[in-house]
Design a protein that fits this description.
Order of helices and strands: HHEEEHEEE
Radius of gyration: 17 Å
Number of helices: 3
Domain S5 DRBM: 30-93
Number of strands: 6
Protein name: 40S ribosomal protein S2
Shape: extended
Oligomer: single chain
Largest sheet: 4 strands, antiparallel
Strand order of the largest sheet: 1-2-3-4
Keywords: Ribonucleoprotein, Ribosomal protein
InterPro entries: Ribosomal_uS5, Ribosomal_uS5_N
GO molecular function, one term: RNA binding
Strand content: 25-35%
Helix content: 10-25%
Length: 148
């Protein structure tokens, strides 16, 4: 069997173990955004050890999203590692209509094929340019006219 699309991977529940697979199927349509970088400290016998935690969201504008937290000693390493992990954890979010069927679907479905962190509570109307499914603070997504 030859895999021809990302949907074939989801259909047969195949694990994605290399980020280059996502690059091959989604390529240039993927956009990543660093949501937050925060220092975290651990108390050791010799003092404190500071590391950096990076929160990264990645998506194409066609219903594929990924959200990851990565901790590392350096900021650049944390961001780079988080982007790779976000590609590995990318999922397809089914979009549905709210109310009547005018325009394109824009809300998240509350059944089936999404992890529990994507939508909490009931399906609700959402502005179309928000990361409404990814975090509770609803950060503004880049408005480059490509959102569908």
């Amino acid at each position: 069997m030859k895999i021809k699309s990302l949907e074939d991977i989801y259909l047969f529940s195949l694990p994605i173990k290399e980020s280059e697979i996502i690059d091959f199927f989604l390529g240039a349509s993927l956009k990543d955004e660093v949501l937050k970088i925060m220092p975290v400290q651990k108390q050791t016998q010799a003092g404190q050890r500071t590391r950096f935690k990076a929160f990264v969201a990645i998506r194409d504008y066609n219903g594929h999203v990924g959200l990851v937290v990565k901790c590392s000693k350096e900021v650049a390493t944390a961001i780079r590692g988080a982007i790779i992990l976000a590609k590995l954890s990318i999922v397809h979010v089914r979009r549905v209509y709210w109310g009547n069927k005018i325009g394109k679907p824009h809300n998240c479905s509350m059944q089936g094929d999404r992890p529990p962190w994507l939508c909490a509570g009931a399906s609700h109307p959402c502005p179309q340019r928000h990361w409404h499914c990814l975090c509770s603070c609803a950060q503004e997504a880049p408005d480059d006219g490509r959102y569908k």
